[in-house]
Amino acid sequence: MAIPSNNNGSIFFILMDIPGLEAAHCWTAIPICSIYVISLLGNITIIYIVKSVPSLHTPMYLFLSMLSVADLGLLASTLPSMAAVFLLGQRKVGAATCFMQLFFIHTFSVIESAVLLAMAFDRCVAIREPLRYATILTTKRIGVIGLAIVTRSAALHLPLPVLLGRLQFQPINALSHSYCVHPDVLRLASSSTLVNSGFGLFVMLFTLGTDAVLILLSYVLILKTVLSIASNVERLKAFNTCLSHICAVLLFYTSLVSLSMIHRFGNNKLPAQVYMLLSYLHFLVPPMLNPIVYSVKTKEIRVRILRMLHPK
């Protein structure tokens, strides 16, 4: 992807270490690396189990494997700069590299949001139309949904590096995070960012905003159906199938909304450590906890993980 700017080669961004712990980045690398290792192992395990067990080739588990792929993509997007900062102590990154990283970070973040929406739709259909579930969510339709998710996310974020490449920056620019994200880079521009801000807001509302509203609508319909069930046992059983997904949605959107609110209304009143903590919570914690939540709450996944750990 070409970045159409004549002076991007002379523009650099300085990635932020944890404030106050710059000299101890080798020690702070230990928990960061642990999170990456746990996340990689957890998501790869989920994908392997779903792929290798034919009985799990159902909509729910296929969407779960898509969520794991999105988590792996998000991890891979943040890993290069995080490794450079915490393992090598290298904090300087070129503009083109920074713009490419933010493209992939935001693309995979929106892919994850869309997969969570698809999973909410899956639960809604399973509870409201159990007899038609298999005919509505066929393998072909799931593939089309997956392709549409990737296409939407990539197409909407392709203009970001191009638009950023047209802005003017100082030769050296200090970021607020250990990786490049669009709002953080945009605030450092020394030329008008009206078009960039407008486009970024449109993309956020059209993707994350729309997904959140539709997920909420799905659960309103699910709740309405569950409350109409006469048996308390059946109600609990139906709602229990949604618990893992609810946890995944809360993990993703709670940190995202908090980070967005602080970026837009914080006005630098909060300590830098708060910005860093929330950014880590959003980009690092969900990929680590999603496999754990689904392993604990989903019997089929839990049983197969136990068999892998304790083979007969």
Fraction in beta strands: under 5%
Largest β sheet strand count, sense and barrel closure: 3 strands, mixed
One letter per element, helices H and strands E, the order comes to EHHEHHHHEHHHHHHH
Number of distinct helices? 13
- Measured between the Cα atoms of the first and last residue, the distance is 51 Å
Cα-atom radius of gyration? 21 Å
Q: Could you say which overall geometry the principal axes of the C-alpha atoms support?
A: globular
Uncertain ranges: 1-6
The averaged pLDDT comes out at 87
Helix content range of the residues, please? Answer: over 70%
Judged by helices, strands and strand pairing, the structural class is mainly alpha
| Strand element count | 3
Strand order of the largest sheet: 2-1-3
Structure notes:
Helices cover 73% and strands 3% of the residues. With 312 residues, the protein is mainly α.
Summary of the model, kept short:
The chain has 312 residues and is mostly helical. It is 73% helix and 3% strand. The model is unreliable at 1-6 (pLDDT under 50).
Write the layout of secondary structure elements.
Blueprint: E1 12-14, H1 25-52, H2 59-86, E2 92-94, H3 95-128, H4 133-136, H5 139-157, H6 159-165, E3 172-174, H7 182-186, H8 194-227, H9 232-240, H10 243-265, H11 272-283, H12 285-297, H13 299-309
Helix pairs in contact: 1-2, 1-12, 2-3, 2-12, 3-5, 3-6, 3-8, 3-10, 8-9, 10-11, 10-12, 12-13
